[in-house]
Design brief:
- This protein has 250 residues and is an alpha/beta fold.
- It has a single domain, classed as NAD(P)-binding Rossmann-like Domain (Rossmann fold, 3-Layer(aba) Sandwich).
- Helix content is 43%, strand content 18%.
- The protein is built from 8 helices and 8 strands, in the order βαβββαβαβαβαααβα.
- It has an 8-stranded mixed β-sheet with strand order 3-4-2-1-5-6-7-8, sandwiched between helices.
- The chain is globular.
- It starts with 8 loop residues before the first strand and ends in a 5-residue tail after the last helix.
Length: 250
């Protein structure tokens, strides 16, 4: 039957910084063996808390890299947990979005997650246990100038709902976490501390603050828990209430 759930590896994509880094660190501190997958190694490799963080280099937009990675994951690790966090945004309206934008965004935000799910699913089914979390965005509820991004992230949430029905009988859950405005380096660059632009976003959030990467990491950890086996097919908005207020300030 393989390793017990608590002994199985966690794969987190896009974990060199931001939300992905917070997810990887938080899970390692909880005692997991975390395998991060992206082009650049994180600066927190090795033992961390009761667990550890490792790195597999791969460009998830490259078909050969993705194929090699899929084979390596299934051969080298007993993966019980998969977090599809890596993503890319190419802002643009319906009038300006291009085929290149759509290809780039859908490759990383949808096709790569599907390939990784296909890679780890046979092992999960054999062991009768698995947890998959897809990271989407509050923006799927509506945001201008994000045609490529929201269509792909909305597709990821829809994938969650359909996939969960296919694998529920195998002891595998599939859920989505959809963050709102989170204070990553990328967000801070576009919304500098003390700027009017940042203040406007904060004012639009009902809890009157920007989220932290750890806020998202804790939500992911909740879905990954072996104790969360009766929750599947769900989308959790980690957004400070923006998904309810409809402010669209993200």
């Amino acid at each position: 039957m393989g390793a017990k759930p608590e002994e199985q590896a966690v794969v987190v994509t896009g974990a060199s910084s931001g939300i992905g880094a917070a997810i990887a660190c938080h899970l390692a501190e909880q005692g997991h063996r975390v395998i991060t997958v992206q082009r650049r190694a994180p600066d927190f490799l090795g033992p961390r808390g009761a667990g550890s963080v490792e790195f597999m280099e791969a460009d998830l937009t490259n078909a050969r890299d993705l194929s090699d990675l899929s084979g390596a994951l299934s051969q080298r690790f007993e993966v019980g947990y998969l977090v599809n966090n890596a993503g890319v945004n190419r802002p643009g309206s319906i009038a300006t979005v291009t085929d290149a934008d759509l290809d780039a965004v859908w490759q990383l935000n949808v096709k790569a997650p599907i390939a990784l799910i296909q890679a780890v699913l046979p092992g999960m089914r054999e062991r009768r246990f698995g947890r998959i979390v897809n990271v989407s965005s509050r923006a799927i509820l509506g945001k201008t100038e994000r045609i490529a991004y929201v269509s792909s992230k909305g597709g990821l949430a829809a994938l969650t709902r359909s996939l969960c029905l296919e694998v529920a009988g195998d002891g595998i859950t599939v859920n989505t976490v959809a963050p709102g405005p989170v204070g990553t380096a990328l967000f801070d660059n576009g919304h500098p501390l003390g700027s009017e632009k940042r203040a406007k976003v904060i004012a639009s959030v009902p809890v009157k603050r920007i989220g932290t990467p750890l806020d998202v990491a804790r939500s992911v950890a909740f879905f990954l828990s072996p104790d969360s086996g009766f929750i599947t097919g769900q989308t959790l908005f980690v957004c400070g209430g923006v998904s309810v207020s409809g402010s669209g300030g993200v």
